[in-house]
Amino acid sequence: MIIQRKSLFLCALLLLCATARAEITEQQIEADCAKIPVLASQGEQLYKTQKYAKARDAFEQQAAWSESCALDDNAIATAYNNVALTWIREGEWRKARAWLMLRPNDSKSIYNLKLIKDKLSALPSPVFAAGEYWRYAGRASWNVL
Known about the structure:
Elements: H1 2-19, H2 26-34, H3 36-48, H4 52-68, H5 73-89, H6 93-100, H7 107-122, E1 134-138, E2 141-144
Antiparallel strand pairs: 1-2
Helix pairs in contact: 3-4, 4-5, 5-6, 5-7, 6-7
């Protein structure tokens, strides 16, 4: 009898858990999308104080939310370029290029790619195929091999 009650209780608990789910409301989505200008501003302030890694975090969030909120291509390209500029300031030319190549035909990307063209050309050619490879996964995330 006690085992049956425990089983019944566990079954009821499982049903309750299965039906409980997190629902994202339209208000939450709008609130999250409203954060984009704040993230961009935070990134700019950090960038101006040469805190490039922290600025990059803010700009990556800007990029992720810009994609999620389906902003126009220009806004998304701006976010990508913001991230790229932090890599440029840290001398990470290939990482900057990876971000810029997400929107290679955007005027900002074209301009910034020209800025690092000579730096990229001066990098030694890889002798082996072994190394770190990035593939864009979306929402400011990369698959790194």
